[in-house]
Amino acid sequence: MIKKSKFIRELELVSTDKEFLEPFNVLIDSLNYEANLGSIGQIAVEYQLKQHINNRILIDKAYSLKKHSVSKPLIVIGLPRSGTTFIHRYLAKNKVGNGSKLYQIIFTSAVLQKIIKPILPFLEKISPARFHSDEIHKTSLDSLETDDPSLLFRFFDGFFLYAFILTWAKEDLLDWFQPKVRDNSKRDFNWLQTMWKRTLITSNSDRIIGKLFSISVNVPAFLNKFPDAKLLYMVRDPLNVIPSGLSLVTGVLDSMFGFWSFPVKKRQHFINRLYKALVELQLRFHDDWMNGRIDKSKVAIIQFDRMMTDFEGLMDEVLPFIGHEPSNEFKNNIQETAKKQRAYKSGHKYDLSKFGITENQIKEDCKVIYEEFLNQKVNINV
To answer: What's the fold here for domain 68-374?
Structure first.
C-alpha cells in the first residue's frame, strides 16, 4: 500500500499550487486499489513518484508562484462578437500588459509551454482553432484568446461546455451556470489566478490582460477576488452581436460536424438554447449593474459603435481609467487605428432569418440593454 501522506506532506511544504492535490489523490488510490502492484512494482512506482515530485519541486523553485501576484488585472468582458477580441489584442500589442495565448490556455504548465512552442506550426494542423473562419474570428494556437476555454480544459465545465455541448441536452441546463444555483467562483477564480501567474512568468510581464465573457454573470464575486481589477465591458447592438455570435458558433460546428445538414428541429433546438444564453449573459450583468452589486468605479462600459467611430476619444478615456500612460508611439498608433476603424468593413455576413429569430424578438428580449447601455453615450468615469 502506497502511503500518500508522505508524498503530499512534502509537496504541500514546497508548492504554492494546490490544484494537483485532487488528481494526485486519485492517482494514488488507483495505484493502491486497481493496479494490483506486487512488492517490486510498488517499490518501482514509489521511486517514480519520488522522482516526479523532486522534478516538481525544482520546477516550482525555478518558476515560483509565490514570487508573483496578479496585480491590477485588466479584464475585457462582454458577449462574443462585441469587440472583445479587438480591444484585448490591441491593448496587449501596445504593451499595456500580457494575455494568454491559446496554447498557454490549453497547456498551462510553464515547462510544457517551452517544450511545445517550437512545434506549434505542426500542432496548428490538428488544432480545433482551424475550424474557425478567419472572416469571423481569426485565431491560432499562438494567438491571444479568451480565457474561458481554460475552465473547459481544466474542469470540463464553464460556458464553453454549455455553448458547444450542453445546449443539445433535452433539459435546459442554463441555470446550472447561474451562481445562485451552482457557485464555482472560488474554484474558477483560483484557477484563473494560477494560470495568469504562469502567463506573467513566461511573458516576463507584470500585468495580465484577460478576456472572459463568462464572468459577465458573476462580476461582484470576481471583483471580490481581484479588488484592484479594472473591467472593460463591451456592449454592442443585440441585433448585430447576437446573430454574429450564433453565426460564429454554428460556423465552427458546421466545419466540424456539418451542422447545417442536421434535421431542422435539431438545429433549431440548439439555436434557441444558445440564443437564450446570449440574452441571459447580458441580462444578468444588467441586473447586477442596476441593483448596485457592481462597483461602477472599476467597470467601464465600452460601446462598440463608439470604438468604431470615435476610437481616439474612447482611448482618451480608457487609458486613464486603466492607469496607463501611453508613449508617443502608442498615441500615434491610436490615431492610425482610429482611421482604420472608421474605414473598416467586416467580411462576416449573416442572415437573422437563418436562425429562426426576428428583430422584434431581440429588441423585446434585450429592451433594458438598449435603454441602459446603447440609447445614449456612456462616458467612462476616471
So the answer is: Rossmann fold (3.40.50)
